[in-house]
Amino acid sequence: MKFPKVYLASASPRRRELLTQIGVDFSVLNVSVDESVLAAETPSDYAKRIALAKAQAGWKSIKTDYRPVIGADTAVVLPSQHILGKPENQQQAEAFLRQLSANSHQVLSAVAIVWQQQHWLSLQISEVQFKKLSSAEIDWYLATGEGKDKAGGYAVQGLAAMFIENIKGSYSGVMGLPLFETSQLLQQVNIVNEQ
Q1: What is this enzyme's class at the first EC digit (predicted)?
Q2: Which active-site residues does the annotation give?
């Protein structure tokens, strides 16, 4: 399958691994966007807005060699619709794990592509069930430092996999980039690009 050569507006090593997995030729753009949640914003609107903002920021940063830019955002959402971002400190990381323990939560993974005056956007929603975590397990996981820069304070592809009873949805989406949706968008861009 042929994909266009793209930019990835993300410093996430997981997103780089996932794009490489499906054979996408890409270069990385480091962008910075305000990821604050707006008042009365739904989690799905939030994830889509941030993914698009990252792609747009990447597009604006290009000086030459204009190629499509991919932006993505992953939000961990409790049943109360509260979004768990990246923990700001150890205490917040512990609070996140206690909230996830013995509960299911949603992981919303949005991907956006910006090219010229157009954009494409998709959202993937997965449900993740955590087992009941003991205080010792929480302390051990916090000590590894694995979840400190991850939405929700855990990494599905890492040690936290031991805590996950099941996933309904997209494993790659929970990791940070839903590959099915990404490949579908890239095919759409390629069709437009070749016209």
Answers
A1: hydrolase
A2: 73
